[in-house]
Amino acid sequence: DGGITQSPKYLFRKEGQNVTLSCEQNLNHDAMYWYRQDPGQGLRLIYYSQIVNDFQKGDIAEGYSVSREKKESFPLTVTSAQKNPTAFYLCASRPLGTSGDEQFFGPGTRLTVL
Amino acid sequence: SQQGEEDPQALSIQEGENATMNCSYKTSINNLQWYRQNSGRGLVHLILIRSNEREKHSGRLRVTLDTSKKSSSLLITASRAADTASYFCATDAGTSGSRLTFGEGTQLTVNP
Fold this sequence. Notes:
heterodimer; A: mainly beta; 4-stranded antiparallel sheet; 11 strands; globular; B: mainly beta; 6-stranded mixed sheet; 5-stranded antiparallel sheet; about 55% strand
């Protein structure tokens, strides 16, 4: 099956710890995105990547870091510098060029800071 | 910053009725997209309308776009209980990386 997977589904973190959220896609998409969603809110862009070994900050990048060592993988690290990390995190991907403009989303990871 | 603003924030209707959600945005766009999110899940793409289009249909969905008013509407006809979800508009302004800017969503409840 083609798609985007995120793991884990639920993640608990103690204050001061870094945690890494996984995002993998087998759709051969060029671009990948990380969003944060707070309760009752829309999505806000954290980071995005259009090509391997390159990524750009979104609107709320502070306290987060990413890497793009492989086309199919775009992990997000929530660092201890992120003051309010409890949220629902969504990963998405899309092909670039003329293949289509929609983004395909993973099922999300719910992060809770204890 | 959130470009899209949606209205209403919440909508409750009976099965069989039509549901209309509105989205306003601030800057020029290449296209506007509507997504659906069931509670605690990822988003699913519903329909895309380009800046040179005024209306688009897909099954029970009808989307309109008025670029002079910077607004769009999503109409779901003959609603079903399974349509209960949050609906988000997202604008593509043609910026680097084909970024989308999402609105805050409309929570639709369809009562059986």
